[in-house]
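Minutes, methods subgroup
Present: GH (chair), OT, SY

1. OT presented the first of two proteins processed in the latest run. Sequence and structure tokens recorded below as shown on screen.
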Amino acid sequence: MFKWKKKEKETKSYDEGAVDASLFTGKEEEVQDTDEVYTELSLHPDWHLPEEEAYVYRFYNSDLPPLKPNQVSVSGFDIQKKDQNILVKAFLRNSLQRGIHFKPTSILLLDKQGQLMARKHFDLTDVGLLPGRSSRPWIFDFHQKDFINGDTNIPVNGWKLAFETHTRKHSLDLEETWEQSLDTEEIDKLEEYVSNINPPKPGEVNFLGLQVTFGNEGNLHVTLLVRNGNEEDITLKSIPLIVEDATGKVIAKGGFKLNDLKVKAHTSKPWTFVFPKNKVNRDEVDLSRWKVYPK
């Protein structure tokens, strides 16, 4: 008896860069009565391209794999190096029956094995309304600072783009001197405080006041959180600060030189700034509320 080889079940190849559309719509969508969605080319209204270039986009779009219902994707098709930057052409795709607006989000550049090469936050609101079941070409520029190891060489064995689908948790970053001077309970309270407040917006660096007190010599001690919402560490060399009381009156201002104060990505670092007496106005100060900000 011959043992006939069973025919393997044919599997469809879908867009591997696709994610659930709720990442951008914020809600679950109605189930569509189809297994796969092919997207039509939709050029941005402000793009006025010669017919030859539009044809190239139509050609690449026709070669895209299908999406599953209720998905969006970023599908790269061309990558070029320009100076120390990498320019990636890609399609933003929408398999919903209705149009959607993309929001600011982080795009990942991965090698063929899925290892992270670069990460950058892009304001995708500029894409505009992407109609239902359509693809829109877009260009993503990655700078050298966006690359994990600074290597901007194009991978010879393949690459792909992806949405960053998880938000990195914002956490406390303590200098060693602070870890040594604070007890465990104080550190725990700081960690709890940082985890419970809203993190800075992606790409934002801001300052949040923690404590303000007058010293015995008339100087002003201001402790604040330096909050880094970037995907990479930042280093502060100097900072000018202004402190206002509850009435909005400026009670202190001055510049501070920092010894290359480093704040890690997605962390908040507490730091105390001491304004000397000659930089402080103590007349009728109301510290029931106060704020500090760079000038």
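2. SY then presented the second protein from the same run.
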Amino acid sequence: MEQVDTTVGPALGTDLAALQEKAAEAARLLRLLSNERRLLVLCHLVAEGEMTVGALAQAVDLSQPALSQHLALLREEGLVATRKEAQAVFYRLADPRAARVLALLRDIYCPPEA
């Protein structure tokens, strides 16, 4: 079995009090990212910058009503923001912490081909 490197950063071991204060906030973000469809929505928004509901529904293979429920939750929690242009509503990633977590997930699960 491979040894796990537990050194995730110099501050983690010395600043557990700060982590304890932010644990609920971190858990909330991870809970939002724990749904596969929401995770895919956010990944597409990272890749494309912004997308309409129709384009997102097609990209993640969800009906518009189902996608709208996910987007409403993400919007309420501040992970995405909207911009309206005529009849189209464009969504974009709005939380820099979520962007950092998504980048880390990409690095772990989708590393560039060596």
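Chair's summary of item 2: The chain has one domain: 26-109.
Next meeting: continue with the remaining queue.
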